[in-house]
């Protein structure tokens, strides 16, 4: 199931909506009247007309109650939006085009009054492929902070801002939608898309035919002999050489005995589909290789060695960061 | 000009201004660093200056001490420095019937701990303990350190050979961590051109003035909303995904205390948002552990702090 | 999405039903819905709730519902057209729509429609329900509807944001239920305050297109415009107040009065039933002060303009007390009959029109001195003038046995269809009597020996098909007031004395809370009137005194019922009949006008109220001040102004930006503003985070704010 925000209810006629929105928007705030809101306003007007026409006292009272609800709705929704400060924080790595973990911190800055029914959702006035899953808080206690897990999907790799989002509320009755734009914060680094199939293939021994001898070789190519140092593993002492030289020496192996892969990426322009595909392939390969312990991975972009070979989680991060930003500017 | 903006005019202000002038004559083109050093002094804190050798770390520390007119000791940290070399030793005198304590170089107002990362951790921790407690216990007797007491430690970047880098938790004892940076081009040119180094500066104020300043700085009012704001920022460092270990409460206290000192030096009787925001990086960046490779730790820490500042709403 | 199983939705569904139920009650209590349609709707609603709700409504059932609603619409229109019961038909249609929505209530939209239907019912209730139950139900409705709206809004958010959010949302909402109730209560309170303010202050210049009041059909009143012996009694204990009388004169009428409040009158009797057989219409002529006056025997109005503002009664020769007048204002609940009740002997009536609707009401004469009114349903208020005095025995004796005028010949006719025994009894009773008064006294004396009872004992004669009156006279000799009165009239008529039966209320009980006389259902009574020549019709009450009234107090909580009735009266007076005049009077009173007739107690009490009010206002003010202090401090107001102006020029402050930094940003972009903006920002920062209680230099800050605005304006021009 897609965890994207569904179609927004509200006025269906876009022209009216946009005109009204423009009229009701200011300083990052906007007010929108939902279909139910229109109906309610209509009913209020009808009751008001009936009250004035007939002079019936109870109709006046009902009219007053409805007017108070409309005004109260506006004030309440405004105060909900005003009192809510939202912060979106990514958790862990974000890969292009894939849902990454995010945490939305909703803080009620008012130390006395609760906040009800606020959501943080993407600003539908901004056309983008970047999507944050909407989050919703039923109640935020006075002065409290609520942390809600969510996901974010950014379509392109590189440094990007979070998608434009709003703190929205329809409190109390869903008659009006009040929105306030969120600050977009600092850009976050989006790693290129990593294709899961490549990783699966790599983890499947049969898919990698030349694998078996390498995996068994726990040590790499012979590099040199050096003097024995206190603490060296006794098993690494090269006894023939000891006999020959008369002092203890040990074997040294290249890259601590790991196989080394240098991924090569040709020059390309960021945004070029072919190049992007290559970057994705590189990233997938790097992740696939680095999930196996015994391989050191490096990255070369054109003639430059971007990342020296290495292994482990830090190396994975280095390679992915390099791949996230690689490419000539558009 | 509103009267509430100003703290009562005092000699302490004049004294600090004089100190700033005197130091700036010696260390040229580094006004920001000097200001931060003075803030650290007024907030009764300690200073960690971290940079490559030869940019004037020791000069800054020495000048500051000389200008203030307190007792000054310089300790060159080496790999064979022992804790007793710092705190002093008890000597049994045959003619007296008891041990006599001979105080070490820490019993001074200003202690320059040069290249602190060259000493082994045991010695480092003796120094850091003295910084925190402001007393020294030797053989079950505790000896109070001088007032004011300020440690200015310098440290070479960690990749230099043969060092024991301070762990993050120990860095927490320093109010600020500063970088000197190279001198500005024109200043450097004039230095190279043989501009004569000024002689040892004359004391510009008394220790009492410094004590008064330290006392006055604690009187600066912190609005509850600002305290809450500071708390939000500290809390945010603890939940930031790019930070493995956030700022401790002690770190937060030191930060706000420094901000108070800065407000006082700005002749204000109350804290403002800017005091907190401007001091956040020097006061907090060295107190957290960013979740990345350690070689870029502190730079990354500063980056993370800026991020947090840039995403935390200020009180309105 | 089928979320019927989510607890939030279940709660929402229940609340939806509850709000419709309350709304329906508001209409039903005014008698706006026929019992059968109410019962049917209730059953269907229960069914809709008991049956498992399908995930979606199938196409077939959707079509069936559409067809049904369309048919019902046609039926409703036809019914409205044919029977002119527009409101009834409309309400039944609304109920059908409610049922239809309850059967298909899967989505939030449908519940929104249910809420809309509920509010339409409430509006309909406002038009027809003048009862005290309405404001109470309205208060309940506000809370229930607010909660329903809140819950439905949450469910709608869940539907909008997707299933994953909906699940957590439901859980969180159920956890925060208590807080939601509180919020709903607060919102309802806001609405109620709005309602009261609008109600009190909104100017009334209505032109009148709707009618208000109950659509009372079959009234359960103890009074009825027809009399049928043998079908009466259970009403006698009903303590419901149907009339409130405020006498205008300064006479102390005591705890209980002995007014015979005349309603309808009957002249023909047949087989236990009284009816109007003869066309004896009473003419009513315009009198002084807007009164409509009955005519006396000579055909002249009996009222003339008096010395004071009160009309005076023309005296009747030979009737000393004939000028004793009772002038009273009556608020009469809607009993479903068009009779006005006036103390005997009625002389004149004047409606007190309150607003455009009542102005259309018309008083007309009924038969046998009845006063009838053509009016819209609902309570009505009127004034009457009655001759309250009665002739003395001597004065009655002096009349002798006058000839029956032609106009009243019908009242003297012998009742047909009764056995000769009755006539024989009448003759034997009056054998010695010479004058009319003596005859009446003889018959009254005979009946005085009978027993008053509400439980009619069985009579063998009546069981054999005889007239109930014969059973009463010869068999049981026991019955209630209608038997006594009927028997008296019949016996008098058999010997040629013009007499008629009168139905109405006897006496009234003083309500010390509301300072008026209350007449209850239980006070319904029957008596007779006998014509005495030039003295006119004279009232006699054949019922033994113990049977004339059931008692003054309600059976349970008499004090409380007195209070409730006084509140009901005040509600009618100040809510239902609140008009421009009262509005003006209210605001005049608020203006502390000096009243001369103020007692010290009243002054003391008003002082107390004033102090209490001041205290409450002060409490709210300090509380509000403390609450708002952080936000609405004057320095913040300046800040808001400046920020708004700068925002209009494209400088929007970030949430994370300090004032000084913001000022620097503005200054960098617009050097012309640099000085003014940075000064203001510095001053604002200083004022905002100053220690509490410090003397803020607001003047300087204000000047700095002005400087910014001026600089902005200058920059704009330049």
Q: What would your notes on this structure say?
A:
The complex is a heterotrimer of chains A (330), B (316) and C (718). Chain A is α+β, with helices and mostly antiparallel strands and 330 residues long. Chain A has 3 domains: 1-190, Immunoglobulins (Immunoglobulin-like), CATH 2.60.40; 193-220 and 258-330, no CATH class; 222-257, no CATH class. Helices cover 33% and strands 29% of the residues of chain A. Chain A contains 8 helices and 16 strands. In chain A, the strands form 5 sheets. Chain A has a 5-stranded antiparallel β-sheet. Chain B has 2 domains: 1-211, Rossmann fold (3-Layer(aba) Sandwich), CATH 3.40.50.300; 218-316, Helicase, Ruva Protein, domain 3 (Orthogonal Bundle). Chain B is globular and about 70 Å long. Chain B has 12 helices and 11 strands. A 5-stranded parallel β-sheet of chain B has the order 2-5-8-1-9. In chain B, strands 3-4 form a two-stranded antiparallel ribbon. Helices cover 45% and strands 15% of the residues of chain B. Chain C has 718 residues and is α+β, with helices and mostly antiparallel strands. Classes of the chains: A alpha+beta (330), B alpha/beta (316), C alpha+beta (718). Chains in contact: A-B, A-C, B-C. At the A-C interface, helix 2, helix 3, strand 4 and strand 6 of A face helix 5, helix 6, helix 7 and helix 8 of C.
List keywords for this structure.
heterotrimer, A: 330 residues, alpha+beta, Immunoglobulin-like, five-stranded antiparallel beta sheet, 8 helices, 16 strands, 29% strand, elongated, B: 316 residues, alpha/beta, Rossmann fold, Helicase, Ruva Protein, domain 3, five-stranded parallel beta sheet, two-stranded antiparallel sheet, disordered N terminus
Which helices and strands appear, and what pairs or packs with what?
The complex is a heterotrimer of chains A (330), B (316) and C (718).
Chain A: H1 14-24, E1 29-33, H2 35-54, H3 57-83, E2 84-90, E3 99-108, E4 115-122, E5 131-132, E6 135-140, E7 145-153, E8 158-160, E9 165-169, E10 176-181, E11 188-190, H4 196-203, H5 211-216, E12 222-227, H6 239-245, E13 249-253, E14 259-265, H7 273-290, E15 295-301, E16 304-310, H8 313-325
Parallel strand pairs in A: 14-15
Antiparallel strand pairs in A: 1-10, 2-3, 3-7, 4-6, 4-9, 5-7, 8-11, 9-10, 12-13, 15-16
Chain B: H1 11-26, H2 31-42, E1 47-50, H3 57-68, E2 72-76, H4 83-87, E3 88-92, E4 99-103, E5 110-114, H5 121-133, E6 135-138, E7 141-144, E8 150-155, H6 168-171, E9 176-178, H7 185-192, H8 207-217, H9 224-239, E10 243-245, H10 249-265, H11 273-284, E11 289-290, H12 297-311
Parallel strand pairs in B: 1-8, 1-9, 2-5, 5-8
Antiparallel strand pairs in B: 3-4, 6-7, 10-11
Chain C: H1 7-28, H2 35-50, H3 59-83, H4 86-103, H5 108-128, H6 133-161, H7 163-175, H8 177-201, E1 227-228, E2 241-247, E3 260-266, E4 268-270, E5 273-275, E6 284-286, E7 292-294, E8 303-304, E9 312-313, E10 325-332, E11 342-343, E12 346-351, E13 362-365, E14 371-374, E15 380-387, H9 393-399, H10 420-429, H11 436-448, E16 451-452, H12 460-463, H13 468-476, E17 478-479, H14 481-494, E18 499-506, E19 509-511, E20 516-520, E21 524-531, E22 537-540, H15 558-576, H16 580-590, H17 600-632, H18 634-648, H19 659-669, H20 674-688, H21 698-717
Parallel strand pairs in C: 16-17
Antiparallel strand pairs in C: 1-5, 2-10, 2-20, 3-11, 3-18, 4-5, 6-7, 7-12, 8-9, 10-15, 12-15, 13-14, 18-21, 19-20, 21-22
Helix pairs in contact in C: 1-5, 1-6, 2-4, 3-4, 4-5, 5-6, 6-7, 6-8, 10-14, 11-14, 18-21, 19-20, 20-21
